[in-house]
Design brief:
- Pfam families: Rhodanese (PF00581), Rhodanese_C (PF12368), UPF0176_N (PF17773).
- It is an enzyme of class 1 (oxidoreductase).
- Its EC number is 1.14.-.-.
- There is one protein chain.
- This protein has a five-stranded mixed beta sheet with strand order 4-1-3-2-5. Strands 6-11-10-7-9 form a five-stranded parallel beta sheet. Strands 8-12-13 form a three-stranded antiparallel beta sheet.
- A hairpin with a 6-residue loop joins strand 12 and strand 13.
- It starts with 9 loop residues before the first helix and ends with a helix.
- Helix content is 31%, strand content 21%.
- The chain folds into three domains: 10-114, Alpha-Beta Plaits (2-Layer Sandwich), CATH 3.30.70; 135-238, Rhodanese-like domain (Oxidized Rhodanese, domain 1, 3-Layer(aba) Sandwich), CATH 3.40.250.10; 247-311, no CATH class.
- Helix 6 (178-189) packs across helix 7 (205-216).
- The radius of gyration is 20 Å and the shape is globular.
- It is α/β, with parallel strands linked by helices.
- It has ten helices and 15 strands.
- The mean pLDDT is 91.
- It has helices at 10-19, 38-51, 76-86, 139-146, 159-164, 178-189, 205-216, 228-238, 294-299, 306-311; strands spanning 24-32, 55-61, 64-72, 96-97, 110-114, 135-137, 151-155, 165-166, 171-172, 196-200, 222-225, 246-250, 257-259, 278-280, 289-291.
Length: 312
């Protein structure tokens, strides 16, 4: 029988990856579409991804697929061919590539999980149907609209993501979860229903659903960035356009963030000096996600407080 789940400890897998320094691509992709039998879909994805030595996390539900993965550079063409042929809906799917091509330690394991939703929106309104979405805009249009006084950019990421990097003057919808954001964004933006509203997130999956929610709530001129921040930066580089995103892009893997511009938008939680280095507190019973500069990492032994430092 084929292996359908990981049977090796995370520690062993991590050591294996750290010893194997072959270059890997870090990729992300998603697609909202109806999957009739998610478990069968999940098992086939797992078997093939395991064969291609893919690491990372993949969520599958009735509403589609959401993946953040890393893959050996020499397996990318084979993987892409498989994905495009696996299901007709996935043919030509947009795949976002990371900015750093040689990073090997973004993920330690392969995890393919069944979920109720690929993005938990928390929407309870029975009349809402995730159908109509905003208009996609490319990197060139983003740069033009950033300078348009009748356009507002809305960041649909969590506050800790916004803190280390965002588009100039983008509205932060203060929140810790996407569910919380969707509740708040209608109230926050209600005063500007007639303006152009551009929503963005890391790779596009959250803001696509958010645009549908905005349209459902009566907003008319709704846009979102194709491929999210990652898609924008890659396209701007390819077309040699100015990259107007400031700071770093938070990522949900062991790297924590990717530097996009030289701007440092945030400060160390402890000494308040400029820093955008996210870490988890070294005290395992705390494990708080926070920003810590290099000096404080030494002084506090990678902990968020003196109490945690004394506890390890």
């Amino acid at each position: 029988m084929s292996i359908l789940h990981n049977c090796i400890s995370k520690k062993e897998l991590k050591n294996h990856i750290l010893l194997n320094r072959k270059p890997r691509l870090i990729l992300s992709f998603y697609k909202y579409f109806y999957i009739k039998e998610p478990k069968n879909f999940r098992d086939e994805i797992y078997k093939n991804f395991f064969e291609y030595n893919i690491l990372g996390r993949v969520y599958i539900s009735h509403e589609g697929i959401n993946a953040q993965i890393s893959i050996p550079v020499n397996m990318y063409s084979v993987f892409k061919k498989f994905l495009y042929q696996f299901n007709p809906v996935l043919n030509g799917l947009r795949i976002n590539k990371t900015f750093n091509i040689n990073n090997t330690n973004a993920f330690w394991i392969l995890s393919v999980k069944l979920k109720k939703y690929i993005v938990n929106d928390g929407i309870k309104d029975p009349l809402f149907k995730f159908k109509n979405v905003g208009k996609y805009i490319n990197a060139e249009q983003v740069n033009l609209m950033l300078n348009n006084k009748d356009t507002i950019f809305v960041d649909m990421r969590n506050s800790y993501e916004y803190k280390i990097g965002h588009f100039p003057n983008a509205v932060e919808i203060k929140s810790k979860t996407f569910r919380e954001q969707l509740k708040n964004v209608i109230k926050v933006m209600n005063y500007d229903k007639k303006k152009n509203i551009v929503m963005y997130c890391t790779g596009g999956i959250r803001c696509e659903k958010a645009t549908s929610w905005m349209i459902f709530n009566g907003f008319k001129n709704i846009y979102h960035i194709e491929g999210g921040i990652i898609g924008y930066v890659n396209e701007a580089k390819k077309k040699r356009l100015p990259i107007l995103f400031k700071g770093s892009n938070f990522v949900f893997d062991n790297r924590m963030s990717e530097k996009i511009s030289k701007d440092i938008m945030s400060v160390c939680n402890q000494c308040r000096q400029p820093s955008d280095n996210y870490v988890n507190c070294a005290f395992n019973l705390c494990h708080l996600l926070f920003i810590q500069c290099g000096n404080c990492a030494i002084n506090f032994k990678h902990c968020c407080s003196l109490n945690c430092m004394k506890s390890i």
